[in-house]
Write a structure and sequence with these properties.
Layout: E1 2-8, H1 14-28, E2 32-38, E3 52-55, H2 61-64, E4 74-76, E5 79-80, H3 84-90, E6 97-100, H4 105-117, E7 124-127, E8 143-146, E9 159-162, E10 167-168, H5 170-179, H6 185-195, H7 203-225, E11 229-234, E12 239-242, H8 244-250, H9 266-270, E13 277-281, E14 284-295, E15 298-308, H10 309-322, H11 338-351, E16 357-360, H12 367-376, E17 385-389, H13 395-403, E18 404-405, E19 418-419, H14 421-424, E20 429-433, H15 440-452, E21 454-455, E22 464-465, E23 469-474, H16 478-483, H17 489-495, E24 498-501, H18 512-520, H19 529-537, H20 543-557, H21 562-565, E25 567-568, E26 572-573, H22 580-590, H23 600-609, H24 616-628, E27 632-634, E28 641-643, H25 645-653
Parallel strand pairs: 1-2, 1-3, 3-4, 6-7, 6-8, 8-9, 16-23, 16-24, 17-20, 20-23
Antiparallel strand pairs: 5-10, 11-12, 11-15, 13-14, 14-15, 18-19, 21-22, 25-26, 27-28
Helix pairs in contact: 5-6, 11-12, 18-20, 22-25
Length: about 650
């Protein structure tokens, strides 16, 4: 039990002293031993010891200082009116002059100030000073407001509004709770009631506490239901929170003063390499993982998970047998560029939430690698990770794979029916790649699944609840697809809750050296300076996937592919430099009709077939220049880019 001493000057106002004492006990109950202490009774040299000292607002801090063992434990009490007072004061006619009477001029002034701070400004409030009573200053005032000090109101004032003693403020109670480390359910429950019973000037502070309390209760409820031991620590490995499972693993009953290094060695805790590892606590082996918590790229703390190794191995074995595991984590992402650092840090933060993620990036940038890493850094990491390429399956097959079906649902259906991937992924993560390619019918079903967190198998009328995290990915321009009527806007906004944009390799060429050394190993040392320059000059339209293919080519034939070896001038080959404009215009001309032209993706593909490797950025720039010169018209959506009469003449010139 925490010891708290409540200081007063003397015993003159025992009813007020009793009110403050009881007010504090109502919140902290038997969690504190509260003692009233009167400065008039203390010897000059007496020093008191306690976990906290509360100083009544009448008492100067300097009078208390000589008598406390630790001045950092002193909290000055502030007071707040009861909320019911607000209606009473609001009913006083505007413009009225009222006398505010308390047991001293200082407390009358303090009461007046507290009324102004909570917005009582329609009346003129005059703090009462008994020393000025004989001057006649208050003779014309007809109304007085007093917090249970009616006997001090001048006799000529008949309209006395007694608002009762002001309560100890929420701010004081909150400071005391934090100082005593009594952030426990019973105290929070009482403090929650208290905050709604008083008028506080700092309403935002109160609201933040209430909202924070509600969020914490929700998070605690979720955390206490998982089978993992979860420990939250500061950047210095001070324990901030442990759930019940972690307490059991550590063999502790009290959350306070846990020294984590008594159970996990300092080397393991501080290591940036040790993760996804096995550690022993109390003779039992546990699967150990540590995740960074960051703010503006600055590590602010960590959370650690512990799972009994037998349980972990058993659940992992079952998932591996089905192939429902994510093999990669953030440490597997080879990079050195700052831009990828930022992407990974953002994805790490996203992993700690449970919201839907949309990963966007060109083909080959590593969208599934990010998706797997997010899953493995989330609390769902012990549950299935299921990935499916939506563009690889026809609509009917994709629907039955995702949602499952009942026996006899369609011709060729399995006699026992089939469990869908949404059900298989329960409690885990499902990754839908190439989400931009699904049909309107599937878009509608997926939207309902996200909204309701329920599915229905094909051929069934039974609703099945699911608990999954959805991660999707695409290399399509979904905003353009929405404009063209090919993708539902409402589904897009459901998917795009937490977007992750993976930059193409041409925008992060700092990563090339690391990537080639990863794929080539020691063979990377055989690359000449000129070959490295060719690799840096190339735009890598196939991104990391193309890097891997190039590494395989080099390992096999000891040379770079010809289209890379000859790379110069913004990504297209020397031999095509002078003819590039002609080739582009010819392709546009052959694909121009009355109703449509050619899109950039198709144009890039046809250029590649001619041996011209060009980035999308470079092509945009060239097309923009051609449009300015009047050679082409760049249409939106399905209309594509079309040749003009002037463009046709330009082809003849070239």
């Amino acid at each position: 039990m925490k010891k708290v001493i409540l200081f007063f000057n003397d015993r003159d106002n025992e009813s007020a002293i009793s009110f403050i004492y009881n007010n504090i006990k109502e919140v902290f109950e038997d969690h504190i031993e509260l003692t009233s202490c009167f400065l008039s009774d203390i010897d000059d040299n007496e020093i008191l010891d306690a976990d906290a000292f509360l100083v009544s607002p009448n008492d100067a801090m300097q009078n208390v200082r000589p008598h406390v063992s630790d001045f950092s434990k002193v909290i000055k009490i502030t007071r707040s009116p009861d909320k019911e007072v607000l209606n009473t004061l609001s009913s006083i006619p505007a413009g009225s002059t009222v006398l505010i009477v308390n047991d001293s001029y200082e407390t009358s002034l303090d009461t007046t100030q507290s009324f102004y701070e909570v917005g009582i400004g329609h009346i003129n409030m005059v703090p009462f000073d008994e020393g000025l009573l004989h001057t006649g200053l208050y003779d014309n005032i007809e109304t007085a407001i007093t917090p249970a000090e009616a006997h001090l109101v001048p006799a000529h004032i008949k309209n006395v509004i007694d608002i009762g003693y002001r309560k100890v403020s929420f701010e004081t109670m909150f400071k005391l709770m934090k100082l005593l480390k009594l952030d426990v359910p019973a105290v929070n429950r009482n403090l929650f009631r208290h905050v709604y019973s008083v008028i506080e000037p700092n309403a935002e502070f109160n609201t933040n506490y209430v909202n924070g309390y509600l969020k914490t209760e929700m998070i605690n409820h979720i955390i206490e239901t998982v089978r993992l031991g979860i420990i939250l620590v500061s950047k210095y490995y001070e324990v901030i929170f442990v759930n019940d499972k972690a307490l059991s693993i550590l063999g502790e009953t009290d959350r306070d003063d846990i020294q984590l290094t008594d159970y996990i060695s300092a080397d393991v805790l501080s290591s940036t390499e040790v993760n996804n590892d096995e550690i022993e606590i109390g003779g039992i082996w546990y699967h150990y993982e540590k995740y960074d918590l960051t703010l503006l790229n600055e590590t602010t703390g960590y959370y650690i998970t512990l799972q009994n190794l037998t349980e972990f191995s058993s659940s992992n074995k079952q998932l591996r047998e089905k192939g429902f595991v994510a093999k990669h984590s953030f440490k597997d992402i080879v990079h050195s560029s700052k831009i990828m650092d930022e992407v990974i840090q953002r994805a790490r933060q996203i992993a700690l939430t449970d919201h839907t993620v949309l990963i966007r990036g060109e083909s080959g940038t590593g969208k599934e690698l990010i998706a797997q890493s997010i899953h493995n850094a989330s609390y769902r990491s012990k549950y299935p990770f299921i990935a499916i390429n939506c563009a690889a399956l026809p609509e009917n097959l994709l629907e039955s794979e995702l949602f499952g079906y009942e026996k006899g649902a369609f011709t060729g259906a399995h006699s026992k029916g089939k469990v869908g991937l949404f059900e298989e992924a329960n409690h885990g993560t499902i990754f839908l790649d190439e989400i931009g390619d699904i049909s309107p019918n599937l878009q509608s079903r997926l939207l309902r699944t996200i909204q309701e967190k329920q599915i229905m198998r094909v051929g069934s009328d039974r609703i099945i609840d699911i608990d999954i995290r959805l991660i999707t990915a695409t290399n399509r321009d979904l905003e353009e697809a929405i404009q063209n009527g090919q993708f539902r806007a409402d589904l897009f906004f459901r998917l795009n809750v937490l977007p992750v944009e993976i930059p193409p390799l041409r925008k992060r060429k700092d990563d090339l050296h690391d990537l080639f050394r990863t794929f080539l190993g020691k063979d990377a040392d055989n690359l000449t300076k000129e070959q490295w320059q060719c690799l840096m000059d190339y735009d890598w339209p196939g991104n990391v996937r193309e890097v891997e293919n190039t590494a395989i080519y080099y390992k096999t034939l000891s040379q770079l592919p010809p289209h890379i070896e000859s790379v110069q001038y913004d990504g297209y080959t020397k031999k095509h430099t002078s003819n590039l404009e002609k080739f582009i215009l010819q392709i546009i001309d052959s694909n121009t009709s009355m109703s449509h032209g050619i899109g950039r993706t198709a144009l890039l593909h046809q250029l590649t077939q001619k041996g011209i490797t060009l980035s999308d950025v470079k092509l945009r720039s060239l097309l923009s220049d051609m449009e300015k010169q009047g050679y082409i018209i760049i249409g939106k959506g399905r209309y594509g880019t079309r040749i003009t009469e002037k463009g046709s003449e330009r082809i003849k010139e070239l």
